[in-house]
Automatic annotation (TrEMBL):
<dbReference type="InterPro" id="IPR050182">
    <property type="entry name" value="Cytochrome_P450_fam2"/>
</dbReference>
<dbReference type="InterPro" id="IPR001128">
    <property type="entry name" value="Cyt_P450"/>
</dbReference>
<dbReference type="InterPro" id="IPR002401">
    <property type="entry name" value="Cyt_P450_E_grp-I"/>
</dbReference>
<dbReference type="GO" id="GO:0020037">
    <property type="term" value="F:heme binding"/>
</dbReference>
<dbReference type="GO" id="GO:0016705">
    <property type="term" value="F:oxidoreductase activity, acting on paired donors, with incorporation or reduction of molecular oxygen"/>
</dbReference>
<feature type="signal peptide">
    <location>
        <begin position="1"/>
        <end position="15"/>
    </location>
</feature>
<dbReference type="GO" id="GO:0004497">
    <property type="term" value="F:monooxygenase activity"/>
</dbReference>
<keyword id="KW-0479">Metal-binding</keyword>
<dbReference type="GO" id="GO:0005506">
    <property type="term" value="F:iron ion binding"/>
</dbReference>
<dbReference type="Pfam" id="PF00067">
    <property type="entry name" value="p450"/>
</dbReference>
<protein>
    <submittedName>
        <fullName>Uncharacterized protein</fullName>
    </submittedName>
</protein>
<keyword id="KW-0560">Oxidoreductase</keyword>
<dbReference type="InterPro" id="IPR036396">
    <property type="entry name" value="Cyt_P450_sf"/>
</dbReference>
<comment type="similarity">
    <text>Belongs to the cytochrome P450 family.</text>
</comment>
<keyword id="KW-0732">Signal</keyword>
<keyword id="KW-0408">Iron</keyword>
<keyword id="KW-0503">Monooxygenase</keyword>
């Protein structure tokens, strides 16, 4: 009886992590529960090669997971410009996270 309860709980948790949380987001690589796509990034040297590969597979807009937090990646300039001009007010007051500071400071992504 306890085994059935544990199995059901674990199955429900996996369903939530692998399907339910991702259902409204753009497609992307399947994340590992708790780790996201971190292991896939560390497997590709340098790390941004994983983003190039995912762009070829999933297109200009895809979802990437850092742990349990999703990030929507827009990988083409024209799509980026279209998104931020058309929906600019949506993105005006977003909170800066540590990962965003890492990208902004020139380790990955577009920088000056």
């Amino acid at each position: 009886m306890i085994f059935l309860l544990l199995f059901t709980t674990f199955g429900s948790w996996l369903f939530h992590e692998l399907y339910w949380k991702r259902r409204t987001l753009p497609p992307g690589p399947t994340p590992l529960p708790l780790f996201g796509n971190i292991l896939a990034l560390s497997a590709e040297k340098p790390g941004y090669e994983a983003f190039r590969k995912w762009t070829k597979v999933y297109g200009d807009v895809f979802t990437f997971w850092m742990g349990t937090k999703p990030y929507i990646i827009i990988s083409s300039y024209s799509r980026l410009k279209e998104t931020f001009i058309r929906d600019g007010e949506t993105y005006m007051n977003k909170v800066q996270l540590h990962f965003q500071e890492f990208i902004r400071d020139g380790y990955y992504g577009v920088h000056s």
